[in-house]
From TrEMBL:
Region (Disordered), start-end ranges: 1-33, 282-301, 354-442, 493-546
Top-level division of the source organism's lineage: Eukaryota
PANTHER family per UniProt: KELCH DOMAIN-CONTAINING PROTEIN, KELCH DOMAIN-CONTAINING PROTEIN 4
Gene responsible for this protein: klhdc4
Signal sequence annotation: none
Organism field: Parambassis ranga
The name this protein goes by in its record: Kelch domain-containing protein 4 isoform X2
Biased composition (Acidic residues): 412-427, 494-509, 516-533
Pfam families: Kelch_KLHDC2_KLHL20_DRC7
Length: 586
């Protein structure tokens, strides 16, 4: 009895400590949130003036991250809500609502009276009842300078049949937070984790709440077993039988000393299992040890649920903290998790089957059957020998945008040259493989077995690129990405802080503006002069041959751009990419 009592006392003590910390954070952030409440109220007053639903055809949504993209439960439509955009000087939060018609490839903006106030890092879940509903919980609002935060604890439902927003007022729900996760498990919305941050303090959560879609009431779930540590932005999916949820990864940080914080990227997995009759349920945590190949550690990945209950993980970023610097490696790979077999595996695109058949038919005759069979087998295997490079698009201010590409091996290029004539006879040529560039905080969802990916962001140095490109991938075929909206780097807006000598005042400088045309024209002429000095491309030289021949020159140029502190590996990648960009421009 004594041991049991001690254990209960320890649990209670931990809960008390967490409660004290939450009160401390809430107290310090209360003043900040009161300031922001006035700004949020202004937005709500403007929205209150709308009295009827207005729908209009529109171009694709503006660049953003940390919005939600959901599949309509009954129609071939996707629903995008909210999000965030930062241009270097100012933070913008959205509460706009868009519907994407999959068959027509068109966007409609829907302005509905009394919507939720602007937010990002919230969660949205679609349920089929009542003609379809979109449930939205939590998220955050930030001041224009990005230094103050307001964390929502409100719950909203968008009735898709009537196009009306409803604010659900139910007591006993989670505290204000963002970066949490919410999924549908039978007739309950299950909320886990997240964080709350003020200017000076922060707290991460690992509590669990459920909202009943029958009684419209919140319940905090108390569980047994070893729970995940507090975290935000994890991968959370419901089990196929609806008896629990699975947690993977996430991010948290702790303060190691005054003004010094240390971030942790989690890669552990847990199962929260529900047992017992309705109304008498018991919940328990257990650690999962999946087979297969887990994704490398990362945060900011996108997640969706694919066919057969498989969880889909795309992209993300792994930040490398070194003393006072923070560098991120961004990803654009896909990993699938089989919830039934408890197994991770990386996804490899198979390529276009039609093009494969053309290549096979294009082989010269005279080969023995055995050799031909071997050739076909090799065609089906993972491609060998291609060179992976990072394509860099240099903007007008000298910033380099990073896009990963794969250059075929010399042998593949020779094969393509041999088959070129036959492919022309067939009336088509093989298109280069396209894929989304590496990114984090993109929006993803699955509809009819297809993965849709919108926006997100990546960084180059101190500059952030926010995207509004749009891709689609058939998860059954796994052949190739389809580009629905292409990214245009020229539309990227970025404002910087500059200081004049002897003047401490800050001024905004728009990178892509009409101001400073003289300086820009001078820079352009300098760039043209520089281009003339680059090693010329020799006649008949492939891009791979050119990169090998001029490697040292381009690495030296990349080093000059990136500075002496940049890592050799990254400098080499950038140099290789600069060589490819120059080659393609010739």
């Amino acid at each position: 009895m004594g041991k049991k009592g001690k254990k209960e006392k320890k649990v209670t003590g931990a809960e008390k400590t967490a409660s004290k910390m939450e009160k401390k954070v809430s107290k310090r952030s209360k003043r900040e949130e009161e300031d922001l409440e006035a700004l949020i109220a202004e937005f709500q007053n403007l929205d209150a003036k709308k009295t009827q639903v207005v729908e209009s055809s529109c171009p694709p949504p503006s660049p953003r991250l940390s919005a939600t993209l959901s599949a309509h439960p009954e129609k071939d439509e996707l629903i995008l809500f909210g999000g965030e955009f930062f241009n270097g000087k100012k933070t913008y939060l959205y509460n706009d609502l868009f519907f994407y018609n999959i068959k027509k490839n068109t966007w409609v903006k829907s302005e509905i009276p009394n919507p939720p106030p602007p937010r990002c890092a919230h969660q949205a879940v679609v349920v089929p009842q009542g003609g379809g509903q979109l449930w939205v919980f939590g998220g955050e609002f930030a001041s224009p300078n990005g230094e103050q935060f307001y964390h929502y604890k409100d719950l909203w439902v968008l009735h898709l049949a009537t196009h009306t927003w409803e604010n659900i007022k139910a007591a006993g729900g989670p505290s204000g937070r963002s970066g949490h996760r919410m999924v549908l498990s039978k007739r309950q919305l299950v909320v886990f984790g997240g964080f709350h941050e003020s200017t000076r303090d922060f707290i991460y959560y690992n509590d669990i709440y459920s909202f009943s879609l029958d009684t419209f009431s919140w319940s905090r779930l108390f569980s047994s077993g070893s729970a995940p540590s507090p975290r935000s932005a994890c991968h959370m999916t419901s089990t196929p039988d609806g008896t629990g949820v699975i947690i993977y990864g996430g991010y948290s940080k702790v303060r190691v000393k005054k003004d010094v914080e240390k971030g942790t990227i989690h890669s552990d997995m847990f199962l929260l299992k529900r047992e017992g009759k309705e109304g008498q349920e018991k919940w328990s945590w257990s650690r999962l040890n999946p087979s297969g190949s887990k994704p490398p550690p990362r945060s900011g990945f996108s997640l969706a649920v694919g066919p057969a209950g498989r969880a889909v993980l795309f992209g993300g970023v792994c930040d490398e903290e070194e003393e006072e610097t923070l560098e991120g490696d961004f990803y654009n790979d896909i990993y699938l998790y089989d919830t039934v077999k408890n197994r991770w595996f990386p996804s490899v695109l198979r390529g276009n089957k039609t093009e494969k058949k053309k290549r096979r038919r294009g082989k010269k005759g005279g080969a023995e059957a055995e050799g031909a069979e071997k050739e076909e087998g090799e065609e089906e295997a993972a491609p060998q020998g291609p060179t992976e490079v990072i394509k860099e698009i240099v903007t007008e201010d000298g910033t380099v945008m990073t896009i990963k590409e794969v250059i075929p091996s010399p042998q593949e290029q020779e094969d393509e040259e041999e088959e070129e004539e036959e492919e022309e006879d067939d009336g088509s040529a093989s298109a280069p493989q396209v894929e989304p560039c590496p990114r984090s905080s993109a929006m993803a969802t699955v509809r009819q077995g297809k993965l849709y990916l919108y926006g997100g962001m990546f960084e180059v140095g101190d500059r952030q690129f926010t995207l509004n490109d749009f891709y689609c991938l058939d998860l059954h075929k796994m052949d190739q990405w389809e580009v629905l909206i292409e990214m245009d780097p020229k539309t990227q807006e970025w404002l910087e802080e500059s200081e004049s000598e002897g003047d401490d005042n800050e001024e905004e400088v728009e990178v892509k503006g009409a101001e400073g045309e003289e300086e820009e024209s001078e820079e352009e002429s300098e760039d043209e002069e520089d281009e003339e000095e680059h090693p010329p491309v020799q006649e008949g030289e492939t891009v791979t041959d050119y990169q090998i021949r001029t490697e040292q020159y381009w690495i030296g140029l990349a080093r000059a751009h990136m500075g002496p502190d940049a890592k050799d590996k990254k400098v080499a990648k950038v140099g290789l990419a600069m060589a490819k960009v120059f080659y393609e421009d010739q």
